[in-house]
Write a structure and sequence with these properties.
The complex is a heterodimer of chains A (757) and B (669).
Chain A lengths: L9 E6 L2 E6 L4 H7 L23 E4 L6 E2 L10 E3 L3 H15 L16 H8 L17 E3 L2 E3 L9 H10 L4 E4 L6 E4 L11 H5 L5 E3 L12 E6 L8 E10 L2 E10 L9 H5 L12 H13 L2 E4 L5 H14 L2 E3 L1 H17 L8 H5 L3 E5 L3 H4 L1 H14 L2 E5 L13 E3 L6 H12 L7 H9 L2 H8 L3 H10 L6 E5 L1 H4 L4 H14 L2 E5 L6 H7 L10 E4 L5 E4 L6 E2 L8 E4 L4 E5 L10 H7 L30 E3 L5 E3 L1 E2 L24 E4 L8 H4 L9 E4 L1 H7 L6 E6 L2 E9 L7 E4 L16 E2 L4 E3 L2
Helix pairs in contact in A: 4-12, 9-18, 9-19, 13-15, 13-18
Chain B lengths: L1 E2 L2 E2 L6 E2 L10 E2 L6 E3 L2 E2 L2 E4 L2 E4 L6 H14 L8 H19 L4 H17 L3 H5 L1 H10 L1 H10 L12 E6 L1 H5 L6 H9 L3 H9 L5 H4 L22 H14 L19 E5 L3 H12 L3 E5 L8 H4 L8 H12 L4 E4 L6 H10 L2 E4 L5 E2 L17 H14 L6 H4 L3 E5 L3 H12 L4 E5 L4 H7 L2 H10 L2 E3 L2 E9 L2 E13 L8 E4 L5 E4 L2 E4 L3 E2 L33 E3 L2 H4 L4 H21 L6 H12 L25 H4 L12 H10 L5 E6 L1
Parallel strand pairs in B: 10-11, 10-13, 11-12, 13-24, 15-16, 15-22, 16-17
Antiparallel strand pairs in B: 1-4, 2-3, 2-8, 5-6, 7-8, 7-25, 9-25, 14-23, 18-19, 19-20, 19-21
Helix pairs in contact in B: 1-2, 1-5, 2-3, 3-5, 8-9, 8-11, 8-25, 9-11, 12-14, 12-22, 16-18, 18-20
The chains are: A alpha/beta (757), B alpha/beta (669).
């Protein structure tokens, strides 16, 4: 028998007579919550530091004079705590009386009514009337774009400001303190605000509401459908909230998206981009028959990674039966990259995840314009930056001014030089580590001076990078989509694999589209379309489309149940927010004798050898527990991978002189689906610096035409004064079925043709 | 002792109303009975009670105005439910009563709201504001009853009385620069680091510097000490400054600097050390043209050439300096020595001049055969100049050429001597000895615990209760020292213990260097004799310590040349005040203080921190966060910064220990 390990970090306290375990540093409130003991709060929000503005959570601690703020005060071993006494109840009641002073009695029309903390606590503490008042200043409602702010409803809990500062990192909201005139202010209006709506989601009252949703429904009339966001690989937890479109129109409509804001977050696209369903579709049996025939005879099926794991499984089954080639530009590069990466690490998956990213003290971001590519990753970097004072190095050819307050070092490299940059990184980070002899020899052979010159990264920048990580622990390297389609992607993958294998860094390979990881793990992908092709949300000879413009309609992801494989390597369930009247991919498969009653019958069949588990869809959990631990679906199982990677010599770097165009969508636009959403509407512009304009000889407002990967873009060019350098940014979200057809490296030098405007 | 009609200050109870003058009790506190020499105060009301100086007081209006001031101070209120609503209701109800419209129910509501504020408010200001109001309601009940019963305005409701208020905190009051410490800690707590920095820079431009090398007198007045341990106030200051520097953000000023006035008015500053930089910064914020004259080729004064890199990295200090020199209205002339002739020119050309040239002469140890021209006798200031000019700027040559494998004896006991011995270790000296007259406890008190222990770890040998009696030389080269040993003999009558020389305790130390670091003096040669500038008894420039003007009109002095060798924060505090006085003087030719400054001095005299006060409403026993330091082997042969600063989590945990002890006080004049 082994001696029981004594956890020196563990503390025991008594709360309301119950013995409770916790860890040093835990607050009284969190230990109480973990033990299902209720303490009322108005301002507490688990995902940010304690705000301590409401004072409702005061408790009694034996032997300590006065009332103790349980949300902020750390528990001490052996403490005896009483959560409610008559005296405490009286003070809580008194605070509720104060909150209710002059609070407009407009619950009848307030959006928050029915889910309002103020309403609930007013009832709970039995405040029936107002026996005193204060002189009320005029507080007009403010329009902040996606959001309206009504200061007279605001209780100054400060949750909104704290999420904006500590999670989103936009620093848009601030407190204008001034006694009773205190208010929340929007310091930047919508100029730098990423319109994420986090502030609104955490508002406990009706002060911050969606301008679109306002006055459209009572909260209690809405049915909550739990789902996962389909717009990017973070696949965040969310709920579609639905009810009848109108009186007399029983067709369901999504009124809004909410989420478990206590523990998780959403970006603007997730929160406001919900109305992309393929609606009013009925079963068109002629089109269906043609589709079945098309699939049967197709030599290739091309598709986007914006599909569920189950659909990927169906496509894989079709391939197995008919040897059809499967083409997915959004997953193929990533799949090859992951395999090459694993061939050096010996593990099937990368090591990083969002939770560890948010607690890292040293972060390198490489090969992604992360704030646009994956806002959720950016949020977690913000958390690390603010809470851990993390050193954050952002390595990219284009400076991103929206990240200035988050990053501590911007390392600019030449477009195309990513292989050299990866080598320099490995050389720098593995210095003083002990890799194998082979690896050491590889590193020793690198011509650092040359790599440094060609990538334009100074050795002093690398020294500064290394120095900034001195005496720190907890490191994450975030790698993004620029790299997966680089001509030397596989060698870069191997070099970065060394960093995971031999340094303290965890590596997070951010999947480029919603389910790129799932598709990469489920499908045997091919490189190029050959012969007759069927496209699923892409252009092809026969098009299956959830965008409503193909040969056969398909359900959009908010009309489907199934699962995604998120960047956290988690298989998360999603449910249909809206019904769908047409045929699905599973119907086609059934017609081809690949039988399954429902699409979700494939959940249990996802490939175990690639980390999936044999769990039925209906058995996938989907909740956070009382202290915020995520129980959504399950985590992929990491398996061993053959460590047989061979490193190539770093090749001569191609040069990209002159003007360059970078393929990148904007912060709230990810795809043709987000482009269909009413609130997210924005013009797709070619944006570049004044320097770019002068090199490319473009005037601000000029119309230009160019071709990338066979897709012709016609764009208005806009000079973005926040940008620098010779690279312009071109989105593709407005390109419909061609939106996802960027299979080549993200940086290009197409011929720019000026058009008459 | 103060003459009062009535006082409840700090739990005393004095009520002289209706008593004959020989029965009058006096207050035990230094209350501001006289607001200024020619203005008598009517009453003083604050966090710890109320004192009435004149019989004919309108207690209701006094209470109302106090509640109103609480509404005015934005930094103090609006951040918690009891404070935000409660404060407003206090004022509205009191004003209603004062107008003659109150009811007895209002009195009940006032008591109810007060109780909630006192028990649950976030900051001490919310918890303390009701106290004197309740005191007045209790002890001046007749006034309240009268106006309620008769529905009449309070007796001086329309009288023209000045109510002058000030928010402070025990730490802020103790800080010589009166930094708004709770605000910068709150900025860290909220992770709005830019606000933290802006709060610091309200009175302290050297946020990097005083976030690293301040001896933090504030921590001696931290109320958290009454509960467990003081907050690590100084180290939390770094966060805001590091944030601005790390992210390459634009300068965060306490307010938008005013554009250069270009009205022909200008101020000269002699010396670009902490006092000079501070004077320049606060004048520049007002848009006043400032020219700084600095003798050395580098800016920053003694902190640049005296304080070593491992304690105060120059790239960080340079950020503080750049903050000042980047201001539109500041011009710097370095390598510009000001002598008496030049000073007369400057004095004639400028509307006011600040002397901030520090104390740059090393004092002697007063030993036999002590000759500064002796080879091996090296003044601490010169020695540190050489070390720092080379290691920070590459000027001159490396001091290791002089010190490598040598023996160094330093005589001192303060920060400068610590810098000497620790630099000597880093320059490769083989043996480093500190001779100190008193004991270990005293050296820690005079410097810091960390400073002493780190020096010991690095290999400095401390010889306590000792002094140099005689210096030996051969051909003018220093060879050895004769050291006397002393012992501390307690006074049998309970007086101060005496240092007595131990007979036959003498010993000799062979050494290559003797570095005196006992104290420094101001080099006063630049003062024209005919000006007859008044000096203190220890030969520094005399001012009244309030407005910092010297005996010559328009000539000001601050920092070490005024006070004698003291701390950076002391220099900053003096210079900040002086800049304010100068900003008015150059326009009206008068020496004046603002109400805020007058109140600051009153409160300082009264003392804000009460170490006997019992703190309630906070969990005791939460340890103070300790930042990580470089290990001795990682630091003793290089100039890397020793203190790595707080991690994010440590900083947050530490900032959450802060109790936000804001207090508001008000004088009725």
């Amino acid at each position: 028998m082994t001696a029981k390990k004594i956890d020196t970090n563990s503390i025991t306290l008594t709360i309301d007579g119950k013995s409770c375990q916790g860890s040093k540093g835990d607050t009284i409130l969190n230990i109480a919550r973990a033990n299902d003991i209720y303490i009322p709060t108005m301002c507490y929000l688990t995902k940010v530091e304690p705000i301590a503005s409401c004072r409702m959570c005061v408790v009694d601690v034996e032997g300590v004079d006065g009332m103790i703020l349980s949300c902020q005060e750390k528990a001490v071993d052996g403490a005896v705590i009483t959560t409610t006494t008559d005296a405490i109840h009286k003070q809580r009641q008194s605070i509720m009386k104060l909150y209710d002073v002059n609070h407009p009695l407009e619950c009848g029309v307030c959006d928050k009514s029915g889910e309002c903390d103020l309403q609930n606590k007013t009832m709970e503490f039995d405040v029936a009337g107002q026996s005193f008042s204060a002189k009320e200043p005029h507080r007009p409602v403010q329009d902040w774009g996606f959001i309206s702010y009504d200061p007279s409803l605001c209780i100054m809990c400060e949750k909104c400001v704290h999420v904006c500062t500590q999670i989103v990192g936009d620093d848009v909201l601030a407190i204008s303190a001034g006694g009773y005139n205190s208010t929340i202010i929007n310091t930047k209006q919508d100029e730098v605000c990423s319109n994420c709506g986090e502030c609104m989601s955490v508002c406990p009252v009706g002060a911050l509401v969606s301008t679109d949703f306002k006055y459209s429904s009572n909260a209690w009339e809405l049915e909550k459908i739990p789902a996962s966001c389909s717009h990017c690989s973070a696949a965040c937890q969310m709920n579609y909230e639905i009810k009848d479109t109108a009186i007399g129109n029983t067709q369901k409509k999504i009124y809004r998206v909410t989420n478990n804001f206590e523990f998780s977050s959403l970006c603007g696209a997730g929160r406001f981009g919900f109305d992309y369903a393929n609606e009013s579709v009925s079963k068109d049996s002629d089109a269906f028959a043609k589709a079945v025939e098309a699939v049967k005879k197709a030599e290739s099926i091309s598709f986007t990674a914006t599909i569920t794991n189950e659909e990927a499984m169906i496509l894989q089954s079709i391939k197995q039966k008919y040897q059809t080639k499967l083409i997915c530009d959004e997953a193929r590069g990533y799949q090859k990259f992951l395999h090459a990466f694993s061939s050096m690490t010996g593990k099937s998956l990368y090591s990083g995840n969002l939770q560890n990213l948010s607690t890292s003290r040293g972060i390198i971001v490489f090969g992604t314009r992360i704030n646009d590519d994956n806002p959720m990753v950016k949020y977690h970097i913000t958390m690390a930056s603010r809470r851990q004072r993390a050193r954050v190095a952002y390595m990219h050819p284009i400076e991103d001014s929206s990240l200035q307050a988050i990053i501590t070092q911007f390392i600019k490299y030449e477009v195309g030089s990513e292989e050299g940059v990866a080598a320099l990184l490995a050389y720098t980070l593995l210095d003083a580590q002990k890799p194998t002899k082979v690896v050491q020899a590889y590193l020793d052979d690198l011509d650092i001076g040359n790599l440094s010159a060609e990538s334009n990264i100074g050795e002093e920048e690398l020294d500064a990078l290394l120095h900034s990580f001195d005496k720190k622990s907890g490191f994450t390297l975030v790698v993004g989509a620029d790299i997966y389609t680089h001509p030397k992607a596989e060698n870069i993958a191997k070099i970065l694999g060394l960093i995971q294998a031999y340094s303290d860094f965890e590596v997070l390979l951010v999947p480029p589209a919603t389910n790129s990881l799932g598709v990469a793990l489920v499908c045997d992908l091919d490189d190029e379309v050959e012969g007759y092709s069927v496209g699923y949300n892409t252009k092809a000879d026969f098009v299956l489309s959830a965008l409503g413009n193909g040969d056969l309609d398909m359900p959009a992801l908010n009309q489907q149940e199934g699962s995604f494989t998120s960047l956290d390597k988690r298989v998360v369930p999603t449910n249909a927010g809206l019904p769908y009247g047409g045929y699905t991919l599973n119907d086609i498969a059934n017609a081809l004798d690949i039988n399954a009653t429902n699409t979700i019958d494939y959940t249990v069949k996802l490939p175990i050898e690639n980390g999936y588990q044999a769990i039925e869809f209906d058995d996938l959990p989907d909740y956070y527990n009382s202290v915020g631990e995520e129980h959504r679906g399950y985590l992929l199982t990491q398996s061993r991978y053959k460590k047989n990677g061979k490193l190539d010599e770093v090749s001569t770097l191609p040069t990209y002189d002159g003007s360059v165009i970078y393929h990148c969508n904007t912060n709230t636009q990810f795809s043709a689906f987000t482009n269909n959403c009413e609130q997210l509407q924005t013009e797709a512009l070619l944006r570049g610096s004044a320097q770019f304009a002068s090199i490319a000889k473009l005037q601000d407002g000029a119309k230009v035409k160019f071709e990338l990967d066979g897709v012709v873009y016609e764009r208005v060019f806009m000079i973005d004064t926040l940008m620098k350098g010779t690279v312009a940014i071109n989105p593709s979200f407005d390109m419909g079925l061609s939106s996802s057809t960027v299979s080549s490296y993200r940086f290009n030098q197409p011929k720019l043709e000026t058009m008459d405007s | 002792m103060s003459e009062v009609v009535f006082s409840t200050w700090q739990d005393e109870f004095i009520d002289n109303r209706g008593k004959s003058s020989d029965e009058w009790g006096q207050s035990a506190f230094k209350l501001p009975e006289d607001y200024t020499a020619d203005r008598r105060s009517k009453a003083f009301i604050g966090w710890d009670g109320v004192a009435i100086f004149q019989e004919d007081i309108d207690a209701i209006r006094l209470a109302t105005e106090y509640a109103a001031q609480y509404q005015v101070y934005s930094e103090a209120c609006g951040r918690c439910a009891p404070g935000r609503w409660g404060g407003r209701i206090l004022f509205d109800l009191l004003d209603k009563i004062a107008r003659g419209e109150g009811t007895t129910a209002d009195i009940d509501h006032l008591k109810e709201v007060s109780e909630t504020m006192m028990l649950t408010s976030k900051c001490e200001i919310g918890r303390t504001v009701p106290k004197p109001i309740l005191d007045l309601m209790e002890h001046y009940k007749d006034q309240f009853d009268y106006v309620i019963d008769n529905q009449t305005p309070s007796k001086h409701y329309n009288a023209d009385v000045n109510y002058i208020a000030k928010v402070t905190a025990p730490c802020t009051d103790m800080c010589p620069a009166h930094v708004d410490i709770p605000a910068y800690i709150e900025g860290v707590r909220d992770m709005v680091f830019s606000e933290s920095l802006a709060a610091t820079r309200g009175t302290m431009p050297l946020a990097h510097t005083c976030g690293r090398v301040c001896p933090h007198p504030c921590e001696d007045a931290c109320r958290r000490t009454n509960l467990d341990e003081p907050i690590a106030i100084m180290e939390l200051k770094r966060l805001g400054a590091d944030y601005e520097t790390d992210h390459g953000l634009g300068w965060m000023h306490p307010f938008e600097p005013k554009p250069l006035k270009n009205d022909g008015k200008k101020v000269a500053i002699i010396g670009a050390g902490p006092a000079g930089l501070t004077t320049a910064y606060y004048l520049a914020l007002e848009g006043i043209q400032v020219d700084i004259f600095e003798e050395l080729p580098v800016l920053g004064g003694e902190v640049a050439v005296g304080v070593p890199e491992y304690r105060m990295p120059i790239d960080k200090y340079n950020k503080d300096i750049e903050l000042v020199t980047s201001m539109e209205s500041v011009t710097v002339y370095s390598n510009h020595r000001v002598d008496a002739t030049r000073l007369k020119e400057i004095d004639a050309e400028y509307d006011a001049t600040m002397l901030a040239f520090g104390t740059r002469l090393s004092k002697k140890v007063r030993a036999e055969n002590e000759r500064p021209d002796m080879d091996g006798y090296w003044g601490a200031i010169d020695m540190l100049d050489k070390v720092n000019l080379w290691s920070k700027y590459g000027i001159g040559s490396s001091a290791s050429e002089d010190l490598k494998d040598k023996t160094v004896v330093c005589v001192g006991g303060g920060f400068t001597s610590m810098d000497v011995v620790r630099c000597s270790i880093r320059e490769g000296a083989k043996k480093v000895v500190m001779i100190y007259r008193r004991d270990e406890k005293t050296i820690i008190r005079n410097t810091t615990y960390e400073e002493y222990h780190e020096a010991v770890e690095e290999g400095v040998e401390f010889i306590f209760h000792s002094a140099v009696e005689k210096i030996y030389d051969e051909n003018n080269k220093l060879t050895k020292l004769l050291i006397n040993k002393f012992e501390l003999v307690p006074d049998p009558n309970g007086g101060r213990a005496q240092l007595l020389k131990i007979e036959d305790g003498d010993f000799e130390i062979e050494t290559d260097y003797l570095i005196p670091a006992v104290s420094q003096a101001a080099d006063l040669q630049l003062l024209p004799e005919e000006w007859e500038i008044k000096l203190t008894s220890w030969n520094t420039i005399l001012t009244n310590g309030k407005d910092y003007m010297t005996s010559r009109a328009g000539l000001f002095a601050s920092g070490d040349c005024e006070y004698g060798p003291m701390t950076i924060v002391n220099a900053v505090g003096q210079a900040k005040r002086a800049a304010s006085v100068m900003s008015r003087y150059i326009y009206d030719g008068k020496i004046s203080l603002t109400d805020d400054e007058i109140m600051e001095d009153h409160l300082n005299k009264l003392r804000v921190y009460d170490k006997k006060e019992k703190v309630t409403g906070w969990m005791p026993g939460l340890p103070r966060a300790e930042s990580e330091k470089l290990g001795v082997d990682e630091r003793r042969d290089n100039n890397k910064e020793v203190n790595l600063g707080f991690t994010g989590e440590e900083a947050l945990a530490e900032s959450e220990r802060c109790m936000r002890c804001y207090y508001i006080s008000m004088v009725a004049v």
